[in-house]
Structure formats: structure tokens, C-alpha cells
Amino acid sequence: MKQLKWLGGLAAMALLLSRPQAAARGAAEAMVQWHASVAPALFPFLALMPLLTGDEAIGAYRALLARPMAACFNLPGAAVPGVIVGMAAGTPAGALAARDIAAHAHMTRGQLQRLAMATAGFSPAFLVGGIGAGMLGNPGVGWRLLASQALTQLTLLLSLRHAWTGPAEPVEAIAGTTGDRPIRGAVMGILTICGYMTLFGALTGAMAEWMGGVAADVLLCVLDVPSGALRVTGMALPESVRLPLLAGMCGFGGMCAIAQSLGALRGCGVHTGVYMGVRMLAGALSAGYMALLQCLPTVAELPLIRPIREKPLAAGALVAAILACPMLARQIKSIS
User: Fold this and answer.
1) Among 148, 166, 223, 248, fewest CB within 10 Å belongs to which?
2) Contact 285, 158 (CB under 8 A)
3) pLDDT tens digits, residue range 72-98?
4) What is the CA radius of gyration of the chain?
């Protein structure tokens, strides 16, 4: 395995040196995308992570939702913030939340693996605002992408509820998590995401120029979902093909997002091959759900949906505030 990594590093370096302009262009585009959409959407969640995943929040959610979580997903009530952060903020915030919660709540490695694999995805801001409104000019499509992702995550939580229930090896706390110094940890997390995006942007740009044609399009879809989605939305494809393809790409996540999640979960017992297999299954499920949702009328114009559709980032902040309410209520009760 170490030899393969060494050879892969040499091949990547040779590729970057052979296509320097394309690599620099891809890296610059990735950094612009990080600056414009990823960092503003994820930083509030990362900064609030200690509040959402600390001992007080875990105690509050355990008291409120322990029984439903155990009955439905075979997970402790403490896992609730990880589930919701994964759905509301996407990758890698969900993986970071799952890791911190598992360490604080003494969850097993199997429980962490199920939680992290089932809740990986993209934020509503990216799906609704980025792909739906920005790339396709139709927020309703973005909401269908979000619905297919949510259905996929729930399906995985249910279908994996009895997976990895072997020896109960606890998850150990990892030094330098966001729970130590909230703002500093959030800044380091955002910069780490920037590093991943820049590296994969450079590699994607260089490989796309080197391969060209259909092979380059397939490569973009596999390596980096934002770049691949932009390419797919510009193709002359019928909606019955385009939307399931986009949903499948978002369900899989792309190698850049997968690398970020695996980096956040390093040392927690998450097997890379198994994780990749679950992400491929998630891609197939998302594409299937999108094909079904195409037969249903859009819900984007419902009165309750319209404000969220117009301000997805504000909706994400609202979710974070709601998540903190049980912990705040518990603190107020203990003071009184």
C-alpha cells in the first residue's frame, strides 16, 4: 500500500509538471469556489461544533431522543446532532461532528462508522443555491436533489442499523479537535478544506486537459462534484437523464469530498474500501430516488418552502440555532 501511494504521488507530480497552466487554472477555480460558497456555508457550523457536540448537548439529546434513535437506527440519542449536522452542513462537517460526538459520548467505532457513512452529503446551500438556482436556474430542481439526498441518508441509516456491531471498541478523543478552541479549530478546518479543494482542483484541471473529450467529463464527475455538475448542466441532455445523473454524483460525493471525510475520520476505525462501497451505493440510491421524484410535482413554491429556498444559508444558520436549543434549555434549568 505504501508503494502504491509513493507511485501515485510521483504520477501526480509528473502530471502537474506536464500541465502546469491547466493545474494552476484548476487550483485557482477551486479556491474561488471555496471562497465564494464553501467557506461561508461551513464556517458557522464548524465554529458552533463544540456547542452542538459537547457534553451538555449530548446529555440533552440523549434525554430527548434516545429511544427513537435506538429503535429506528440502532444509534444512541447523542448521535442526533451528527445526523442533523451531516444533513444540514454536508461533508466534511458531518464527519467532524460524528467524530467529536463519538469521542464525547463513548460510542463504538461501529456506531461512528455507520453514522459517518450514512450522513455524508452536500449542504442545502450548494444543492439548492449552487446547482439548482446557479447552474440550472431552477431552485425546484435543487430541492429535488436535496430530497433525494435526504431519502438516501435515511435509507442508509435504516439499512445499516445492524452493520458493524461486533466488538464494542470505543472511539478515543483525537487531539486538536474543534472542541478544544472553537474558532481556531473552525479556521483550521476551513483551511484544511481549502487545501483539499485546491489540490484536487489542480489535479482535475491537469488530467482533464491531458485526457480530453468524454474521458475528461467522466473524470470531473468522479473527482470533483462541483466541477462535474457544472459540466453536466452544460450538456445537451434530457432532464430525465441529467437530473438522476446529478443526483448520483451528489450521492457518491466525489473523491475530493470523500478524501476530506476520510481525513477527518482517520484513526477512528473507518475502513476506506467499505466507505467507498457505501458511497457508490449512495450514488445509486440518489439517482433512483431522483428518477422517482421527477414524477412528482415540485414543492419549491409552497408557502413554507419559499423563504428557505430564497435564503438557504440563513436556513442553515436557523438549523444550527435549533440544534442548540435543547442544550440551552438544560443549562437554564440547571441554573434555576
Assistant:
1) 166
2) no
3) 888 888 888 888 888 878 888 888 888
4) 20
